[in-house]
């Protein structure tokens, strides 16, 4: 039997407890049986294990194999420079591994944040006396006392209550505090039973006692913690793409290495020369600079996003945001301001806007009564920050409205209270004033108005007849149609012995009606429209009532049809997985009164439908959904530490429009990675062709492996990073999300990099190599020694030509279809910094003794540099013609040509 359905005495008996609590002996025995009242940690992979993974993935294993081959070659045939090559490759692996470990390292702070939410001390009854004990010593059957401001230490059943109200937002998502009572409840879910207090929630007002029935991981709080820890980490689209790209390139590199080693062997090449050739093919095909460049590009994007109030905790989430197809969004505080305000008032017999209240003498008297009612009849936590009351936004708004009318110094002294009751749906406060005791009542109109027989109007206090009730109901309907939450206020004077003792709420005078609104953030409607333009679906998931959610959804433009699908938590609980997925096909759908596992269930259902899901949240109850989503987004201002620790992105301003800005940056990141991927892969062809020519045509090797690494990990890094810093394209938010199956490495990208730009670069590199080698008197068929000055100068010229062509390629890769001369391409300062660095590095290699020694180079004359220029201009002209043709074809098809 559920404990919430039992009477107080039966609930205590079911736990073998009493109103005076357990004995100390029995509590000690139960502590041994049930364990301490704390959230246990689920074992995570050790740091060393996680570090080791960065050096053993498929991409790294290929480089390890190349390093082992190079070091073996140095052992069996020393003096060929293979040892230095092996050490260089190991250095590449170590740098990439450490960089990736820093990127992937995630400090697991969710459990620490969960523990901080549980109070360290609690008042517990043992042997019939109240005593202070550590919260982790609580056991089932303990009776605890709770007061305003206390955190609930475990799951408890209320046994007595006086005006007890609890803020359950961190567990249930409800924005309004809930009144708690000792009476049995037929509510099935412990999250919404009014006689249960859940661990991690906070007492807003009142006081009471409760018996503990669940501790530690058996609490709802612990269950959420377990969901948070056991939910698998979602792999971002970019992570999947990098893994796919790495495996594809590694397999290609190894396959070509083995193929051409076999060809070399068939042609009779010496074993060690053939091995050098195979290693060169592998190293030339593996873009060693890709991993650090991707990481740095993502890090730079996080800095741009931070300036737009989105703090990124996990780097891959930057690009994952750009792939989002659905945003599952909270209402309170994200779409709305979480700052309720009085919008309309029915006072003195008529409906008025809150900023245009009547000023006639009778109206002022009615307003005074209504203001006193609103100012005194509230439940606010007693703490004050900066002179402002803190607590439920609705209560704060009412207190502020009433205080403005009657003056804060004129408020009356509260001497008694009839607390809010779920059946009565109203509360009353008895106050002492200079006119005697008075009762003020506040609550739902349908429960307060039947208690009234008179009302304050412009003509004074009159009978509440049928005609006046009709006018009142019309005003009430007008306010509810506007999406306002309406409260009725009434009052009466009390004479000693005639109603005070009985706390009678009958015979009241209706003071008026107040309509409150939690206004949407002003930027939200435009952000919702941008999402629609970008093909992103927004689904509201809230713990609030469905009517409130629907009213806000209509106001911000999220719902435009007459009959959207509104699914409650109870309905969702009865749905099968198939039914939920079918329900999500609705064009407009909202979810209201959902629990923690239900939010995660919605996310998983969307993911099964092939969606890339971003989820917002601020409470403990949101943590599992935040973790399992493709992108978890926590609120920075109102969010709990648990939500922030489980999220990938934290909004510093809690604003939905910031999510849309972050999506724009994320889409730009994907586009930019494609740009520098094209740039990096283009240089693979002039690195591979020399080795193919070496084995097929028996010419001197035009480019050494060390020189390949100089390009991949030296001259190419900063220019590639400059492409990663390009600003978002103006049309990026007018395109639909890219298909989930769309890959970074497309056939079009490969064709442009390998079969177009790369061929121009290879032609330039091989031509200048033969030019310099021929100037030294080389004849076909000769194989100069590895230290021959003319040969070293020729390989240096080949390297310099690749770098020079890459400078031109940098401008061509800034946009796939726009001309490199287009003014639409905004100025990018990092572009020029990249070119300057690239130039400095090649000059260091070519013209300094240290650079010559490290990379096997010799200084060049001016002629080889000038020889490269026609090739660079030819590549630029060819690519500009290609872009012109693509733009023309897009215009004919009705597109923008921005691709």
UniProtKB/TrEMBL annotation:
Does the keyword field hold Transmembrane?
A: yes
Highest taxon, organism lineage: Bacteria
Q: Assign the protein's first listed, main location to one coarse class.
A: membrane
Localization? Cell membrane
Keywords from UniProt, A to Z, are: ATP-binding, Cell membrane, Membrane, Nucleotide-binding, Translocase, Transmembrane, Transmembrane helix
Q: Cation-transporting P-type ATPase N-terminal domain location, by residue?
A: 2-75
SUPFAM superfamilies referenced in this protein's UniProt entry, alphabetically: Calcium ATPase, transduction domain A, Calcium ATPase, transmembrane domain M, HAD-like, Metal cation-transporting ATPase, ATP-binding domain N
Any Pfam family matching the protein: Cation_ATPase
Transmembrane segment boundaries: 58-76, 82-102, 248-269, 275-299, 676-697, 703-723, 744-771, 791-812, 824-847, 853-878
Question: What InterPro entries does the record tag this protein with?
Answer: ATPase_P-typ_cation-transptr_C, ATPase_P-typ_cation-transptr_N, ATPase_P-typ_cyto_dom_N, ATPase_P-typ_P_site, ATPase_P-typ_TM_dom_sf, ATPase_P-typ_transduc_dom_A_sf, ATPase_P-type_domA, Cation_transp_ATPase_P-type
Membrane topology qualifier: Multi-pass membrane protein
PROSITE patterns from the UniProt entry: ATPASE_E1_E2 (PS00154)
GO CC terms of this entry:
plasma membrane
Which GO terms fall under molecular function for this chain's record?
ATP binding; ATP hydrolysis activity; P-type ion transporter activity
> Could you say which protein family the record assigns here?
Belongs to the cation transport ATPase (P-type) (TC 3.A.3) family. Type IIA subfamily.
Under which name does UniProt file this protein?
A: ATPase
What is the native source organism of this protein? Thauera propionica
């Amino acid at each position: 039997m559920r404990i919430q359905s039992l009477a107080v005495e039966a609930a205590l008996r079911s736990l073998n407890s009493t109103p005076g609590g357990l004995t100390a002996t029995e509590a000690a025995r139960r502590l041994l049986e049930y364990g301490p009242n704390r959230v246990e940690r689920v074992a995570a992979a050790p740091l060393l294990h996680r570090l080791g993974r960065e050096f053993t993935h498929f991409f790294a294993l290929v480089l390890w194999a190349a390093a082992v081959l190079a070091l073996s070659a140095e052992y069996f045939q020393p003096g060929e420079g293979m040892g230095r090559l092996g050490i260089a490759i190991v250095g590449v692996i170590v740098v990439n591994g450490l960089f990736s470990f820093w990127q992937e390292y995630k400090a697991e702070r969710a459990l620490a944040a969960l523990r901080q939410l549980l109070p360290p001390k609690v008042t517990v009854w043992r042997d019939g006396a109240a005593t202070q004990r550590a919260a982790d010593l609580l056991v089932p059957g303990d009776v605890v006392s709770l007061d305003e401001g206390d955190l609930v230490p475990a799951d408890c059943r209320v046994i007595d209550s006086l005006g007890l109200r609890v803020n359950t937002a961190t567990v249930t998502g409800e924005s309004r505090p809930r009144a708690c009572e000792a009476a049995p409840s037929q509510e099935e879910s412990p999250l919404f039973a009014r006689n249960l207090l859940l661990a991690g929630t906070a007492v807003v007002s009142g006081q009471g006692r409760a018996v503990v029935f669940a501790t530690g991981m058996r609490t709802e709080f612990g269950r959420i913690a377990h969901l948070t820890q056991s939910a698998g980490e979602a792999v971002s689209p970019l992570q999947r793409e990098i893994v796919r790209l790495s495996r594809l390139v590694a397999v290609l590199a190894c396959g070509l290495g083995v193929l051409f080693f076999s060809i070399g062997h068939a042609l009779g090449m010496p074993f060690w020369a053939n091995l050098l050739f195979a290693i060169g093919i592998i190293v030339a095909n593996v873009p060693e600079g890709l991993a650090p460049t991707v990481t740095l590009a993502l890090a730079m994007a996080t800095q741009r996003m931070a300036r737009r109030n989105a703090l990124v905790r996990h780097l891959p989430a930057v690009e994952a945001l750009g792939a989002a197809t659905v945003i599952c969004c909270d209402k309170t505080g994200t779409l709305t301001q979480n700052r309720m305000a009085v919008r309309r008032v029915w006072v003195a017999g008529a409906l008025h806007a809150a900023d245009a209240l009547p000023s006639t003498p009778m109206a002022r008297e009615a307003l005074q009564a209504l203001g006193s009612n609103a100012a005194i009849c509230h439940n606010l936590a007693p703490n004050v920050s900066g002179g402002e009351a803190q607590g439920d936004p609705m209560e704060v708004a009412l207190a502020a409205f009433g205080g403005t009318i009657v003056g804060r110094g004129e408020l009356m002294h509260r001497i008694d209270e009839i607390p809010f009751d779920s059946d009565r749906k109203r509360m009353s406060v008895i106050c002492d004033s200079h006119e005697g005791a008075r009762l003020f009542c506040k609550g739902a109109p349908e429960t307060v108005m039947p208690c009234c027989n008179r009302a304050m109007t412009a003509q004074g206090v009159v009978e509440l007849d049928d005609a006046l009730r009709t006018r009142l109901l019309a005003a009430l309907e007008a306010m509810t149609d506007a999406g306002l939450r309406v409260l009725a206020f009434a009052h009466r004077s009390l004479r000693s012995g005639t109603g005070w003792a009985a706390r009678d709420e009958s015979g009241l005078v209706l003071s008026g009606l107040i309509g409150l609104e939690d206004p949407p953030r002003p930027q939200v409607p435009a952000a919702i429209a941008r999402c629609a333009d970008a093909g992103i679906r927004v689904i509201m998931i809230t713990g609030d009532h469905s009517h409130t959610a629907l009213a806000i959804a209509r106001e911000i433009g999220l719902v435009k049809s007459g009959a959207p699908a509104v699914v409650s938590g109870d309905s969702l609980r009865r749905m099968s997985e198939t039914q939920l997925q079918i329900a999500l096909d609705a064009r407009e759908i909202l979810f209201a009164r959902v629990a923690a596992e239900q939010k995660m269930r919605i996310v998983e259902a969307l993911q099964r439908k092939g969606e890339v899901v971003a989820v917002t949240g601020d409470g403990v109850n949101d943590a599992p959904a935040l973790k399992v989503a493709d992108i978890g987004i926590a609120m920075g201002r109102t969010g709990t530490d648990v939500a922030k620790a489980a999220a990938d992105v934290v909004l510093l301003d809690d604003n939905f429009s910031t999510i849309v800005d972050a999506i724009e940056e994320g889409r730009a990141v994907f586009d930019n990675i494609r740009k520098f991927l094209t740039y990096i892969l283009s240089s693979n062809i002039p690195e591979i062709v020399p080795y193919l020519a070496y084995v097929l045509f028996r010419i001197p090797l035009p480019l050494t492996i060390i020189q390949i690494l100089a390009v991949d990990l030296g001259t190419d890094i900063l220019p590639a990073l400059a492409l990663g810093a390009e600003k978002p394209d103006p049309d990026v938010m007018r395109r639909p999300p890219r298909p989930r199956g769309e890959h970074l490495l497309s056939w079009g990208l490969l064709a442009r990099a390998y079969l177009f730009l790369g061929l121009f670069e290879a032609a330039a590199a091989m031509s200048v190599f033969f030019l310099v080698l021929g100037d030294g008197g080389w004849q076909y068929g000769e194989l100069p020694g590895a230290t021959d000055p003319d040969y070293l100068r020729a390989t240096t010229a080949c390297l310099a030509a690749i770098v020079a062509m890459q400078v031109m390629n940098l401008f061509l890769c800034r946009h796939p279809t726009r001309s490199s001369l287009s003014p639409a391409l905004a100025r990018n300062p990092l572009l020029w910094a990249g070119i300057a660095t690239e130039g400095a590095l090649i000059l260091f290699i070519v013209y300094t003794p240290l650079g010559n020694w490290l990379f096997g180079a010799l200084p060049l004359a001016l002629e080889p540099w000038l020889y490269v220029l026609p090739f660079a201009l030819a590549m630029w002209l060819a690519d500009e013609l290609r872009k012109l043709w693509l733009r023309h074809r897009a215009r004919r098809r009705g597109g923008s040509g921005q691709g």
